[in-house]
Amino acid sequence: MTSTDTTQQVFRVALRRLGIERLVLSIHQASFPASHDDLGYGTPYSERSGEMIEWLAGLGFTGVSLGPAGITSRNNPSPYDATGLSRNPLHIALEPLCQAGLLDQRLLDAAVANRPVAERVAYEYAWVTQRRLLAEVAATRCDDPAVIERLRQLRQAAPWLDREARFEAVVAAVGHDDWQHWPSSPPEQAQAARDFLLWQLLVREQHAVFCRRVRRLGVRVYADLPVGTSHREQFLFRELFLAGYAMGAPPSRTNPEGQPWGYSVLDPAQLEPGGDAWQYAAMRLDAVLQDHDGLRIDHPHGWICPWSTARTIPIPCRRCNREPACTSRLICPTIPPWPPLPASARTRSIAPNRVTRTIG
To answer: Per DSSP, what are the bridge partners of residue 249?
Structure first.
């Protein structure tokens, strides 16, 4: 028995005496400590992150709760606006790829040397550079028979991957991911789709290695299930959402004006067991539970009884003076009270006369 094992036992005995069954660290992937291969964005899959988990286990921690693991856009690093199905290639640790002969060490060293030194977090640099280096990996490995077989198994287990791969192909060809400004028949770049699929394989395989290492220490791995839908999913699964409605948080003592999430609302008519929206929600749950020991549910009310309001044509907000702004009647105090929402009357669980419009 090592001193670390002894220390862990001491801490866990103390926790039991305090009546604490689980001691869990909640940490976003980007917040893990930087290793020597860091481009400006953390990852739980690096060697140094593994050492941090060993240290936490020695202190008696029984779990680590990761942030949402979805893909973030180049201009929006928020994991709560990320994809709910595909995983973020920014989380791939690059040094293990070099050790496995998948990436030229000189390319990684040059990328690290060029990282903006004045910034502790260099999100955009990491976003662009990580994809460039991973494209180098894909260029040499996509035709490998072993990789092809692993990709076949992954695509069979996650049938939505091909739909997202096509999205990546269009993004690469058009030059941006704002599908609202795509041509009616957008071009596609086939290599980008193949790159995307390989990245999804790599990030899942590194996550599996991470989980095995962590669980050997007696530590569980939890996921975060965000309530929102990403910009890409609002396009890819647009037939599942209630047109003209946006989800937010109602006014409260801590947020008297409410919270303008602007997320799409799943169509209640399709949420019956077996319905298309029901299957999408189940697919999102399966996507995180398949390789985690549990999950944190972000804003449970958004899953059970979403606070939904009618979207309006974007108008300038006299309070914040931005355009476009305040696309929901929930938020802006300069917009008159919203009208009844007849389309949702059949699924409304709270009668309008029971809503208090002032915070007492």
So the answer is: 259
Give the pLDDT confidence score for residue 21 in this predicted structure: 83
How far the first Cα of the chain sits from its last, in Å, is 58
Examine the pLDDT at 153 and tell me if it is beyond 50: yes
* pLDDT digits 0-9 by tens, 231-242: 999 999 999 998
Say yes or no: 149 and 276 in one domain.
no
Q: How far is the CA of 330 from the CAs of 165, 228, 260, 316, 337, in angstroms?
A: 35, 16, 7, 15, 8
Measured CA to CA in angstroms, residue 227 lies from 96, 262, 303 at distances of 33, 11, 7
Kind plus residue range of the DSSP H or E element containing 295: strand 294-297
3-class DSSP assignment, residue 237: coil
Q: Which domain holds residue 342?
A: 237-360
Q: Which of 205, 231, 257 is where one domain is finished?
A: 231
- pTM of this prediction exceeds 0.90: no
The span from the CA of 333 to the CA of 359, in Å, is: 14
Is the model's pLDDT at 45 over the cut of 90? yes
* Cα–Cα distance, 35 to 14 (Å, whole number): 32
338 or 348, which is more confident: 348
User: Tokens in use for 221?
Assistant: 């791995």
pLDDT digits (tens, 9 = 90+) for 79-113: 999 999 999 999 999 999 999 999 999 999 999 99
Cα separation values, 159 from 124, 163, 165, 208, 283, Å: 30, 8, 11, 20, 10
- Asked if residue 181 and residue 58 are part of one domain, the reply reads yes
- Token reading at 52: 């941090």
Mean pLDDT computed over every residue of the chain: 85
The CATH number linked to 98 is 3.20.20.80
Number of domains in the chain: 2
Asked if 158 contacts 219 with a C-beta cutoff of 8 angstroms, the reply is no
Residue that is written with structure tokens 């990403």 in the block: 230
